[in-house]
Amino acid sequence: MKAEDVAVLIADDVPQMRRLLASYLADLGFREIDMAESGAEVVAAFRQRSYDLAFLDIEMPGLRGLEALPEVLALAPNASVVMISTQGTLDNVKAAVELGAKGFLVKPYAKQKLEDAIRRLQMLDARA
After folding, report:
1. Which of the 8 DSSP states describes residue 53?
2. What average pLDDT does the chain have?
3. pTM for the full model?
4. What CATH class is the domain 3-120?
């Protein structure tokens, strides 16, 4: 799959983290990038549009990322969701995977780890 054909949603309550992740994704060739700052916004966005790839922060105000994840996958069962958090604890990773997440990234983001995670999901051409 070519990066420019992938619709991406980034959900994080910290604007700087959203912008950083969006910048890294743009550098990798992703063009369709939307943003949300809460779990409720994530669910609303998935009701409006089908995303191929989503990055959900675990800790957001109101509806948390782990709470939004099942709703997202009910709306878009084929979406690849990567959970993000400052806390890469085994409990967080296990909970995310059990709920259907396809990956987990720890903040602050390392560009290479982001690229590796996306390649594992086959959302990025080998040539990119």
Report:
1. E
2. 91
3. 0.92
4. alpha beta
